[in-house]
Amino acid sequence: MATYMLLLYSEDAGEEERARRWAELPEWDALTEELRATAVWIANAALHPIESASTVRVRDGEAAVTDGPFAVTKEVLAGYYLVECADLDEALAVAARMPMARYGSVEVRPVVEL
User: Fold this and answer.
1) How far apart are CA 56 and CA 72, in angstroms?
2) What is d(CA 88, CA 23) in angstroms, rounded to the nearest whole number?
3) R_g of the chain, CA atoms, integer Å
4) Residue 65 · residue 72 · CB < 8 Å
5) 42-55 per-position pLDDT tens digit
6) 62-67/105-110 β-pairing
7) Which residues of 73-100 are buried (b: 16+ CB within 10 A; e: fewer)?
8) Angle 90-31-73 (CA atoms, 0-180°, nearest 5)?
9) CA angle 28-50-67, nearest 5°?
10) 114 band by pLDDT with thresholds 50, 70 and 90
11) Which of 32, 36, 51, 101 has its CA 20 to 30 A from that of 26?
């Protein structure tokens, strides 16, 4: 088994779009419960909107904090799932079932075992 991080990206949405996405909550809940029942699920969380984000960079020993993410794309990180799958194909299949894959994207990354 290997651990994969599924990073959920979508365009930053206004209130109307956020309300539509909250309406998907039962679909997210059903998928999450199914993943928990099959022991694939490790953790998941939604993230607050990008207005609440801060970015820290340390250069020459000095920390600088800026508001928000520093992204060159319209899509922002909206949440994540941490899952344990037999292989990449299984992780990709789980990612394809995420509602956000229909209008945003789900990035699948293997987690380095330390």
Assistant:
1) 17
2) 30
3) 16
4) no
5) 999 888 777 777 77
6) unpaired
7) eeebebbbbebbbeeeebbeebbeebbb
8) 75
9) 155
10) confident
11) 51
Looking up tokens 């037999």, which residue turns up? 86
Report the amino acid identity of residue 20.
Answer: R
Structure tokens at 94: 């789980």
DSSP 7-73: EEEEE---HHHHHHHHTTHHHHHHHHHHHHHTT-EEEEEE---GGG-EEEEEETTEEEEEES---SS
Query: Token digits for 68?
Result: 């928000």
